[in-house]
Design brief:
Blueprint lengths: L3 E13 L7 H14 L2 H6 E13 L3 E5 L6 H8 L7 E6 L3 E4 L12 H11 L4 H15 L14 H12 L6 E4 L8 H16 L3 E5 L3 H7 L2 E6 L2 E7 H14 L8 E10 L2 E2 L2 E3 L3 E10 L3 E12 L4 E6 L8 E3 L4 E9 L5 E11 L4 E15 L32
Parallel strand pairs: 3-7, 3-8, 5-6, 6-7, 12-19
Antiparallel strand pairs: 1-2, 1-4, 8-9, 10-11, 10-13, 13-17, 14-15, 14-16, 14-18, 18-19
Helix pairs in contact: 4-5, 4-6, 5-6
Length: 407
């Protein structure tokens, strides 16, 4: 049996931009013109949502698909789910496929959570016997046992999403297509969702994960595809693809009038290129600049920001004792920052700025230039990791079963 379970071979998908006619007066000339011109204007309104997409996914692999809005991610999802067919090329799926895309789709608001588990499970292809066998597990996972016989129209949006994910995550499939659904619920439920996906992968299910959440993609996937305007920009190890993703918007910037530019920023650990670190590990950020014109009094500034935009750390070559430097047109400058990542769990964006402290002039900036994913191993929130420990010196006696609280 082949280890390849999903293949895209030179897949193209073409769409047409629609026309809106507000009146019969507008519609009749448009129809007449279309008849006379045949396909001339139709071709001018067509565009490629996907072009020359080719990749393979192996059995048991977690494969990520990332890209900015409009990159073509949703089109790939629809092609995988069989909602659309490619204009050109072939898609081969070797195994049963289920899509965990819109959690709670198909829920009926007047039915209870219990009834909707059976309804949604059936829509997702589960047999009634299979739902019965997994019912308790689904309810426990959702954390909604106290509300399972309440109509879902009385659920909060978070409760609704949690029940939807719980049902979908217990569908047996050889290939599972997952959209942004890992962002449902609170922090602890999101962690539970991620743990569930890791269990699914360990059990041999192939997962295709499409998301804007780069941390979730990095935590779940070993390999990824980067799309931009319907075309493949990069495919390979997740660290390399995310670095390419970050460079896309920077590469397209207009640098007219700039005297210096940031050529590259790379992140590495003790063993080379990396983006995932344990708290307390040492990391290096390598920066390379190029002069576009003569400029002097420069410093390289490094900022680290959490996902809320809070600046958790700042330093620069000048603050670390290096003299301001100059660049001439065509000359280069490179430096490396060494950091000990005593941080809590989370994703931290690195921002690099070329700056003159005397004139307060910004020559160039890249944000994010890199992203650091930090794991503490235990639940530590906030920003800093103070490596907490607790010692219980006197334990409270358990309450007697007959004891009445407050009596």
């Amino acid at each position: 049996m082949s280890d390849v379970v999903l293949t895209f071979d030179d897949v193209h998908k073409k769409f047409k931009r629609g026309e809106i006619h507000d009146s019969l007066r507008d519609l009749l000339p448009a129809l007449t013109g279309r008849f006379l011109r045949r396909t001339g204007n139709l071709e001018s309104r067509e565009f490629w949502a996907l072009k020359e997409i080719s990749f393979e996914i192996t059995r048991g692999e977690a494969f990520g698909i990332v890209g900015h809005n409009g990159a073509g991610k949703s089109t790939i999802l629809k092609l995988l789910s069989g909602i659309m067919r490619p204009t050109k090329g072939t898609i081969d799926v070797n195994g049963s496929l289920s899509a965990l895309i819109e959690v709670g789709a198909g829920f009926h608001p007047d039915l209870t959570g219990r009834e909707n588990i059976y309804l949604n499970g059936t829509i997702l292809g589960m047999a009634r016997r299979e739902i019965e066998l997994r019912f308790d597990e689904i309810v426990e996972f959702s954390g909604l046992s106290d509300f399972i016989d309440t109509p879902v129209k009385r659920y909060s949006s978070g409760m609704y999403a949690r029940l939807g994910f719980a049902v979908a995550a217990h569908v047996d499939a050889e290939i599972l297509v997952v959209d942004e659904v890992l962002s449902v619920g609170d922090h602890m439920f999101q962690k539970k969702c991620l743990d569930r996906m890791n269990t699914v992968i360990q059990n041999g299910t192939t997962v295709v994960f499409v998301s804007h959440n780069l941390q979730a993609v990095a935590d779940l996937c070993g390999r990824s595809l980067l799309l931009d305007r319907g075309q493949m920009m990069s495919i390979g190890p997740i660290e390399e693809v995310i670095q390419s993703y970050m460079g896309l918007s920077y590469a397209s910037r207009n640098r007219e009038g700039h005297k210096a530019r940031i050529v590259s920023v790379s992140l590495r650990g003790e063993d080379g290129a990396n983006m995932r670190f344990d708290s307390g590990e040492r990391a290096w950020i390598d920066v390379e600049l190029e002069g576009l014109a003569d400029c002097e009094g420069l410093a390289v500034v490094l900022d680290m920001l959490d996902r809320s935009g809070y600046n958790v750390f700042n330093t620069s070559t000048e603050r670390l004792g290096e003299e301001p430097f100059s660049l001439r047109s065509g000359s280069t400058y490179s430096c490396s920052f060494q950091l000990d990542l005593n941080l809590a769990n989370g994703a931290y964006d690195i921002e690099i700025t070329v700056y003159n402290y005397g004139t307060e002039y910004v020559f160039d900036t890249m944000n994010p230039a890199a992203t650091v994913y930090v794991n503490t191993g235990v639940e530590v929130r906030g920003v800093a990791n103070c490596k907490p420990k607790v010692t219980v010196r006197h334990g409270a006696a358990p309450a007697s079963p007959m004891e009445t609280p407050g009596a």
